[in-house]
Design brief:
The chain is built from four helices and no strands. The chain is an all-alpha fold. The model has no long low-confidence stretch (mean pLDDT about 90).
Length: about 90
C-alpha cells in the first residue's frame, strides 16, 4: 500500500503507472496532456482510475477521472482525496 503522500512521491507513482500503461519512453511532466500527448482514450482513463484507486487505496468518481486533462489534474485529485496533505 502507498504510504508516502508527498507531492513528489505521488507524482512519481502516477508517472510510473502511466508510463507502464501507454508504453511511452517520453519524459512526462505535470503539464503532459493525457489525450493529446499520450493519446489516452476514455477507456484507458477509466482503467487508470481503477489502477490508481488500488495503488493509493482510495476511491475516485468517474467524473473526477474524466475531468483530468493533465498529469497535474490527476495529482490534484489524489492529493485532495487524502486529508491533511499540503499541495
Amino acid at each position: 500500500m502507498f504510504t508516502q503522500f508527498t507531492y513528489q512521491n505521488v507524482f512519481e507513482a502516477i508517472v510510473e503507472t502511466i508510463t507502464e500503461m501507454v508504453g511511452t519512453k517520453s519524459t512526462l511532466l505535470a503539464e503532459t496532456r493525457l489525450d493529446d500527448d499520450l493519446a489516452m482514450d476514455s477507456l484507458e482513463m477509466v482503467e487508470l482510475g481503477v489502477i490508481l484507486e488500488r495503488k493509493f487505496a482510495m476511491k475516485f468518481s468517474l467524473a473526477q477521472i474524466r475531468s483530468c486533462a493533465t498529469l497535474e489534474d490527476i495529482l490534484t485529485i489524489v492529493l485532495e482525496s487524502k486529508q491533511g496533505v499540503m499541495v
